[in-house]
Amino acid sequence: MSFSGKEDPKTLVLFDVDGTLTPARLTISPEIKQLLQDLRKKVVIGFVGGSDLQKQVEQLGSTVLEDFDYAFSENGLTAYKLGEKLASQSFINWIGEEKYNELAKFILGYLSQIDLPKRRGTFIEFRNGMINVSPIGRNASTEERIEFEKFDKEHKIRETFVNALKEKFPDVGLTYSIGGQISFDVFPTGWDKTYALQHVESEGFEKIHFFGDKSYKGGNDYEIYEDPRTIGHAVNSPEDTARILKELFF
Ligand code: M1P
Questions:
Q1: What's the gap in Å between 134 CA and the centre of ligand 1?
Q2: Is residue 240 among the annotated active site residues?
Q3: Are residues 79 and 202 in the same domain?
Q4: Starting at the edge strand that comes first in sequence, how are the strands of the sheet with 44-48 ordered?
Q5: Cβ(16) to ligand 1 under 6 A?
Q6: Could you tell me where this protein is found in the cell (predicted)?
Q7: Cβ(208)–Cβ(200) under 8 Å?
Q8: pLDDT tens-digit readout, 189-237
Q9: Same-domain check for residues 132 and 82
Q10: Eight-class DSSP state of 99
Q11: Is 221 a catalytic residue?
């Protein structure tokens, strides 16, 4: 599979999704979609999202696997090149059933002990490359998400929860990442967004750009933004992404 039809096939441009290509939790605008199509004629493009592929299909469109050269979901634990699935690992194989059971029991026990104004459903979402833990539950509506985020800012629910997990499981080698509004991701240390880079290592790219809005320390774009293999661009909205793309490539 080659990229030789492009103007500059040795340059790869990777994007975070939420807050970088789309407004948080919302869908991509026709303008950004068109800009990406134009960019794709020049260079190789891909996205690296924390969420699972289903969420990215909702946000970037049902043709997402055709619209990007690389599609990296769950930090690259689910990966596609030109629509074809690449090999991947799984969280459960890495951690093992016994340890995962212990972790899940602790999480559900902890959640049963804390006071929250609202609880909905799906407190642990089991994904291929990680688990996602949400105190309010992933079935929360958009309005309930906003309420929870506000409550969490004030009461530090997620931060305290993550500290309790770190204390309870100091030696498991897990990383906890608060990337969105109502939840945090739990994955093996090193399986952050830099994981996606191993899928492109043998392709001989001379430049790999990365655009992300959570590029600050503690944000889920930080590691790949800082990685010496990438040229990092910290952005604050899809419009900001578009502005930098136009400066760099058009
Ligand atoms: O992409 C950032 C995060 O988006 C979602 O977070 P939340 O539901 O809390 O807003 C999740 O899909 C999470 O895994 C992801 O990191």
A1: 10
A2: no
A3: yes
A4: 84-85, 78-81, 70-73, 44-48, 11-15, 207-212, 231-234
A5: no
A6: Cytoplasm
A7: yes
A8: 999 999 999 999 999 999 999 999 999 988 899 999 999 999 999 999 9
A9: no
A10: H
A11: no
